[in-house]
Automatic annotation (TrEMBL):
InterPro entries hit by this protein: AAA+_ATPase, ABC_transporter-like_ATP-bd, P-loop_NTPase
Biased composition (Basic and acidic residues): 401-410
Pfam family, one: ABC_tran
Name of the protein in its database record: Putative ABC transporter, ATP-binding protein
GO molecular function: ATP binding; ATP hydrolysis activity
Compositionally biased tracts (Pro residues): 339-362, 376-396
Length: 410
């Protein structure tokens, strides 16, 4: 088991991870989700003893990593698939790692077979594709046949077949009773791979729950309603009637309305009573990716000025979640501007709070007004239709161990 308690990491005036507490249990795949720069790699590096926490602690099997007896046999990790000497073959690379850890050479051929690189094992790794590099990194993680495995973005660069293979491998490793901790940007991928989810934003815990609970609490239904084009007064009349009846009404980009908090038959009745004709009244379900983006939107560091995710925010004054057949999808717990969701008891929901400023008069942390008084967060854009879940993984490089080497340079 991996256990983090009050884990905090500051790099100068930058708070990368703040007061993070969680447990990663054996026998399950635990997904570690968060936007770019949210602190996933930093957390993984602290678990592996590569970075020293500023406060708090993290243990693997009850020991801090550096005190773990025979660590390479107990913990395997893929942090940076590019951290390979390009002049060496895959086999030579693994042999070196095996020798350093007292692992017999035959295990190298075993893991090469497991990851499907046996036919290119003697080729120089500098000619490897991103996907082959990921496979080699996974082979290195498996080398010591460890009970605890950490994978930072393992599907990065893999084709659909490779993604399926990683998914099945993670599940198999967990079914053997191992602790499998895997980071990703993609909720949709984690929904298929993980049993448990730990979601962070700006280094802080946003959710710690089973995937099953995440799905049941976030796959809320909504209705789309469309009034005749070119008759805006009909749309306004309907908006007023639905809002008065307790529904939340958000305009969609194509002119339709997104209604939560009211069942379909009630919407139909209200439209009839208000004498509004409907061109569309249809049931929909929010995607998990959308729920995840809503949960993390207040904690996104890097956002295009044209990013429509800002439109996932509820308009000011939107009511609390309603029950019913088309209840509102719960917002991010504790995220400013969001409604807390009805999460099950025992779910860790500390809420997003600005970490206190680092000592010694350093610059304010994330989200705090910058020195000139400008807000660190872009202002919320008017509500627009949320974008469809991205079909491709965001083009992010895998977490980079060289970050550590560059620490002084930063
Ligand atoms: N060595 C370092 N020195 C200074 N700042 C750092 C260092 N390592 C990470 N950071 C900062 O800490 C924050 C968290 O970074 P981290 O790489 O842990 O996030 P991440 O969730 O893994 O991001 P990504 O998904 O983009 O890999 C970022 O703002 C990053 O710039």
């Amino acid at each position: 088991m991996i256990e983090a308690v009050g884990l905090t990491k500051r790099y100068g005036d930058k708070t990368a991870v703040y007061n993070l507490s969680f447990q990663v249990r054996p026998g399950a795949v635990t997904g570690f989700l968060g936007p770019n720069g949210s602190g996933k790699s930093t957390t993984m590096r602290m678990i592996l003893g590569l970075d020293e926490p500023t406060a708090g602690h993290v243990t693997v099997g009850g020991y801090p990593f550096r005190k773990l007896p025979n660590a390479p046999r107990q913990v395997g990790a893929l942090l940076d698939a590019k951290a390979v000497h390009g002049g060496r073959s895959a086999r030579q690379h693994l042999l070196c790692l095996a020798q350093l850890s007292g692992i017999p050479a035959r295990r190298v051929d075993e893991v090469l077979g497991v990851v499907g690189l046996q036919n290119v094992a003697r080729k120089r790794s500098k000619g490897f594709s991103l996907g082959m590099g990921q496979r080699l990194g996974i082979a290195a993680a498996l080398l010591g046949d460890p009970q605890v495995l950490l994978f930072d973005e393992p599907v990065n660069g893999l084709d659909p077949e490779g993604i399926l293979w990683v998914r099945n491998l993670m599940k198999q490793l967990a079914s053997e009773g191992r602790t499998v901790f895997v980071s990703s940007h993609l909720m949709s991928e984690m929904a298929l791979t993980a049993d448990q989810l730990i979601v962070i934003g700006r280094g802080q815990l946003l959710a710690d729950m089973s995937v099953k609970d995440f799905i049941s609490y976030n796959s809320a239904d909504f209705a789309r309603v469309r009034t005749p084009d070119g008759e805006p007064q009909q749309r306004e009349k309907l908006t007023a009637a639905l809002s008065e009846a307790g529904g939340q009404v958000l305009p969609e980009q194509d002119g339709a309305l997104r209604i939560t908090g009211l069942p379909l038959p009630r919407i139909s009745e209200l439209a009839h009573t208000a004498d509004v004709r409907l061109w569309e009244l249809s049931p929909h379900q929010a995607s998990l990716e959308e729920a995840y983006m809503r949960m993390t939107q207040g904690a996104v560091d890097y956002r295009s000025t044209a990013d429509q995710r800002a439109g996932l925010q509820q308009p000011p004054g939107a009511g609390a979640p309603q029950g019913g057949a088309y209840g509102y999808a719960p917002g991010a717990p504790g995220v400013p501007g969001q409604q807390p969701g009805p999460y099950p008891p025992g779910t860790v929901m500390p809420g997003y709070a600005e970490p206190p400023a680092p000592p010694q008069g350093a610059a304010p942390p994330h989200g705090a007004p910058a020195q000139g008084g400008a807000p660190a967060q872009p202002p919320a854009a008017p509500p627009v239709q949320p974008p469809a879940a991205p079909a491709q993984p965001p083009a992010a490089a895998p977490a980079d161990l060289s970050k550590r080497d560059n620490e002084d340079a930063r």
